[in-house]
Sequence to fold (233 residues):
Amino acid sequence: MSTSPMILICDDDPVVHQSLSLYLDAESFAHMSAYDGEEGLKLASATSPPDLMLLDLMMPKMNGLDVCRILRQTSRIPVIMLTARGEEIDRIVGLELGADDYIVKPFSPREVISRIKAVLRRTQQPQQGDDPITLRYGNLEIQPERYLVTVDGNPVAMTPREVELLHLLAAHPGRVYPRETILSQVWGYDYFGDTRTVDTHIKRVRQKLQCENPAWEIVTVYGVGYKFEALSI
Fold:
């Protein structure tokens, strides 16, 4: 991680910018601001992009969901979505589009800082524990140190969190991981017991890895969690 990570705040509320800026300054984070979706997308897609984007859901010119959808076509910048909405569907759609996390307004700036640190630790530092060796199952290859997943030699567009989730399961084939354990090991902090987040990410990983005659399978263990199985073809 750089000594001064750059955080992009994309929100149309000046109060949000003011409060978060104070806490970011206190933590020695650099930061820049965008007040509508188009401006935020432009800054996030720049030649020197930010290290992380705080993205409001409801904004003028372009909403946060559209920003995230377009950004994910070319970039894996970590995105934490900020939303004042309480409906579950908004959170699920945001995660399905590639957001790494979400925080519901009103929020504590301290909580936001904690989430930022957790995401940056996860995406910018080497993983602790097992050596980041390449995993291969048939035509599937996982290179955790490069955050790269390929199928038939072709890169699969996956967010860092999706790669980490897949690697966790594939590194220990046959082992059942409860949802709470996945949250702890992949997300790295208390995710307020929202284990449905795991289900959403598993669904996205399965969709992205669809191919003919796979040599692997992500199996649902009902009432518990998930496991990765290597198949005999």
About this structure: The longest strand covers residues 216-221.
